[in-house]
């Protein structure tokens, strides 16, 4: 491919948004009847008039579910991937790196690491049987993967035992052969066997039916490098110096009392965090053990380049913690570039702040102004820390209260949209931080309070 990649292309990849259909008109979109697989599944139909929130199919028990895995074509076999086994993990990296993201000229790939997978796939309660692979019997080559982790989800006032499904991938040479429905049915069977009947998942593609849609937003941290590796072009009538100046960040963080989150803070921070999360309609509820896993991660990682999760708190003079901010790192490897080997990418994760707690109404004017100002400082500091850790671009969605700071902090709207789906659960739509014209909705903001990797 000869034309240089545009930042938008990169950002589209970052959003894993293969085949974005969200831009199509309703008439151009596949109709429900054309979703040969999905129309058979317990998911909400397009434009369904939801009368009441709750499960779609009635009560079942694990005994109602077959004990045997779904049949596969004779040349394939199921396998459980042991993420503690380096060879098996390597197979997953190769599969995902080469097939997960459509990189048209293969000049960069996700740089999945053991550290990232330990974080993403081994959260408390994880099960090896939910890391499902499909191998070619004769060669043992891994050609497909799907994973689930257990989560407690709150949708409005109801708390639902669920799983999050992620890293679905089919080898490029085996696409369009209907392997995906088999993977989904098999993971459903294994999850049902454990008496869990609901799932949350996200995808760039439009399926029946998103409960919410958010948009990706991207903040260049190292504009020069993005330009050098041809991820971004120079806009017309702009100079490089102007672009660099536009995105220049302070060298150091500014928020007084900002420091790394430590285990000793967890009880206090969880109170703050849980209170903050109450404002959203869809959140993950963390146990203390889960909170430590997701926010502190593996403390034995000493190499800063291998660190996955970065969590900070603001401790005030009186010793009280008023804010939490976190982001994670998932870099790209740049191939065939003599100057640069990696592209660092930070993803905004969860945050919380007591800035508007004294106002009962989330949309109170003074409360909003206070929160906006606090989030601007916190997220700017997160960008500064990400840049200090050699990250080149910082991603956020329009979820949470993000639309309060995206424009101010120069997060450009991306091409990618992320749809949120619930399996076997009907819910009223949840705002995704977007207006009808898909620009940031700074007023209503989003009611999505869950962050999916
Ligand atoms: S999202 C990330 C998905 N992965 C990628 O984008 C990586 C690159 N792409 C690929 O590897 C393949 O293109 C995939 C499709 C595997 C995506 N989610 O096998 P097929 C439907 C759900 O011939 P292929 C993530 O990881 C499609 O509409 N369904 O297709 C979350 C069609 O169905 P229908 C999808 O192109 C995953 C059928 O598959 C997706 O060879 C959540 C065609 O199958 C998609 N992203 O491979 C999974 N893409 O005929 C659901 C296509 O009806 C979990 N399809 O239109 C559900 C909950 C399960 C647990 C429940 C527990 C209670």
Question: Mind explaining what this structure looks like?
Answer:
This protein has 453 residues and is an alpha+beta fold. It contains 9 helices and 18 strands. The protein has helices spanning 7-14, 86-99, 114-121, 179-193, 223-228, 240-247, 266-277, 288-296, 365-388; strands at residues 54-55, 76-80, 108-110, 131-136, 142-155, 158-170, 199-203, 212-220, 258-260, 282-285, 309-315, 321-329, 332-334, 342-343, 345-353, 393-397, 412-423, 425-426. The strands form 3 sheets. Strands 2, 4, 5, 6, 7, 8, 9, 10, 11, 12, 15, 16 and 17 form a 13-stranded mixed beta sheet that branches. The protein is globular. Mean pLDDT is 91; it is low at 1-5 and 16-24. The structure holds tetradecanoyl-COA (MYA). Tetradecanoyl-COA (MYA) binds at residues 16, 18, 35-38, 99-100, 163, 165-170, 175-181, 184, 187-188, 191-192, 196-199, 201, 203, 205, 207, 423-424.
